[in-house]
Write the structure tokens for this entry.
Amino acid sequence: MRTFLAAGLCVAALLATGPALARPLAAASAAEADRPCCLVPAGTPVAVELVAPLSTADAQTGDLFKLRLAAPVIVDDQIVIPAGAEGVGQVVQSSGPGIGGKGAKLVVSAESLTVFGGAIKLQAMQLTATGKDHSAASGALGLAGLAFMPLGIVGIALTGGDIEIPAGTVAAAKTGESVTLRPYRRASAQDYQRVRAVFGAPPATRGWIDIAPPPAGLGQVVFYRPKSVLNVQWFNVRENGEALGKLTNGAYFVTGLTPGVHSFTAKSEPELKDHLNLKIAPGETYYVEATMTHGLVLGAAELVPSEKARFDAVSGDLQHATEVRADNSRGGGG
């Protein structure tokens, strides 16, 4: 069976079948409806896009928003989820600019797609907008490689320091469950072209440091602080007051986390602390860059969502930090 994903082309392993949903999106031919089709395994990449813009000026943490499938999911030459299928996302964090030069942050995740009158769970997408200059600015994210990475980064600044993720911004998610779907219609050459146009080939990035996959059932976050000659302050990254690791200048550490929403903080005394929310999916690796902004006295710590390519680019100057926490995983909520 060949499965052509909305986020690119890949071969799906037929290991198990999921529950069939009740009815097709539109009337398929009798022959197509009787085909033994079509398994969409958990972890299948799909490309979704925002229906309307999201901004820190009005979005609140926890808000739901509309999204849609940007390209069809194709199995054995049959479209099983057409482009335009509606879905729902959630705002994981929305915060305005802070004291000491901290940028605004907007982190959103994909929650589900509506198919056959039911909902397919989505995971592993975290589209992030930030007001900092070291974010990769783009009006519509190129998807090259994003299906293999949980984070997409945009950096669109608005008047007043707020930020916005524009309507039509595309990012990659993954199905959170296996599901067997009836075919919608046979895929055309134009459908395959749309898939290729949306996704493309992932870029090859390789750094000095190899990050192993997380333990079974867990996700993980790589916290790192690029080496700089300008600042020697250090700070701990914490969750719920518990120190996860100490980030000196040019240090990194990896922490395993249970799936769910996690809220991290960083504080450099006597400055104000910064916080960042991430939604962790099992089997995924996330990257967070720690920086020091110009604070009131010395400097203020800041946590910014990042990408593997950025980590690889600076990893040659990084040293492993001393992890403070004794265990290797921590539970999250939501």
The first strand starts at residue 3 and ends at 5. The chain has a mean pLDDT of 77. DSSP finds three helices and 26 strands in the chain.
